[in-house]
Amino acid sequence: MNKPLSLRGWLTLLSSFCTLAVAFSFGLFSLPVFYPALVRAFGWNRASVAGGGSIVLLLIGILSPIVGWLADRYSPKAVLLGGMCIGALGLALLSLTHSLAEYFAFCVLLGIGTSAVSILPNSLLVAPWFAHRRGIAVGFVNAGIGLGGIAPLVANWQIRGHGISGAFLFLAACLAIPFTLTLLFVRRAGASGPPTSARGARSAEGRVAPSARQLLRLPMFWIFGVSLFFAAHAMLAIQQHLVLYLTGQGVPGPRAALALSTAIWSSAAGKLLSGATADRFSARLAMILSVLYVGLGVAGVLAVAPSSAALFAVAVIFGFGYGGIFNASPTIIFEYFGTRQVGAAMGLLLVFFGLGTASGGLLAGYLFDRTHSYAVPFTLDLGLAAAGFLLLLVSGRHTRAAALPALQSESSLA
């Protein structure tokens, strides 16, 4: 039984890695590189162009419960294949953009597709195969997002060579790669799921997925959720506006794109570090460290001269936290509730992540348009990261798994 488990598990891991590296990352991380070109081409303000990215990020969050329910009801594979088709269509239609209304409408389509290929279905796909190193497995898959840090460079290269339309079409075509891998390597969960002996240790312990009502009554859900919102808001304000900030300070476009790519590449190491910490200690500690790295990264952006080489060291630190925050929702849910039928629960927690990521870029753009300086929004982001860090530190007794037996008893009586 171990041989087929090993083969299918690794093929599933490879497919999910590529899905996050291309289908998720190319649709998300390349968009900020288009912002300066869209401002020049159409005369839109920065809040408007960043609003497109905020739409995508908002939909990733608010659609997460639906994506989780669909993955539980059908299969993560079906959700991923559908999401890649919708995401490719959104990118292709963005190549036809001529008005702000069209831009926002096509970003809605891109957001729907990106939500369906996010960390949620990919984590649900791989977690049951890895009983004792689940955090590392989730971290490895999510490290594909770090590899997707090449997206800003690819987008910048395509924009310079083929313009806005050609760049969007190229990115859309790239989604054929993960689509083919998922179609060929991943079988239906019901037909080829892990043998019983290989299922996760927490599932074997009889843990049950909470209902929405039960989850909303748990203090740990709100503590983790609010902290996740603060951290996500801070880190996406930086990610969405770093290129605009640097180019506005006279940094050449390719160097600004490289700084953003460095942060995203470093997030791969952050995901692995976070996963290992969750396996060895706890998901809570992993999240605390990730929020700390985000705060240090924001402080570094405020303190370091934009033209300084030290900015790339700041990007690395920021990337560690950026990657770890992406890991937080799946590692928390798997640690508390196991891996079976937890898509909807993970989706509810990811709503906080989505609201934070969507509001971060939008508010930063709004504040810049009003103050003509990034010092105000970035200082606010530093304060939010600090608030999330302190909330996690002082709420240890509310975020331990000791509350789970009561939840299980309630579920068994229902």
For the largest beta-sheet, the strand count, sense and barrel status come to: none
Order of helices and strands: HHHHHHHHHHHHHHHHHHHH
Classification by helices and strands: mainly alpha
**Tally the helices: what do you get?**
20
Which architecture per CATH?
Answer: Up-down Bundle
Molecular shape: globular
Q: In CATH terms, what is the fold-level topology?
A: Growth Hormone, Chain: A
**Helical amount:** over 70%
Overview of the structural elements:
This protein has 414 residues and is mostly helical. It has a single domain (7-187, 210-397), classed as Growth Hormone, Chain: A. Helices cover 81% and strands 0% of the residues. It has helices spanning 2-28, 31-42, 46-62, 64-73, 76-94, 100-116, 119-126, 134-147, 151-174, 176-185, 189-192, 201-204, 212-216, 219-248, 253-280, 283-303, 310-337, 343-371, 375-394, 404-413. Helix 2 packs antiparallel against helix 3. The chain is globular and about 55 Å long. The two termini are 36 Å apart. 59% of the residues are buried. Residues 189-193, 195-206 and 408-414 have low confidence and may be disordered.
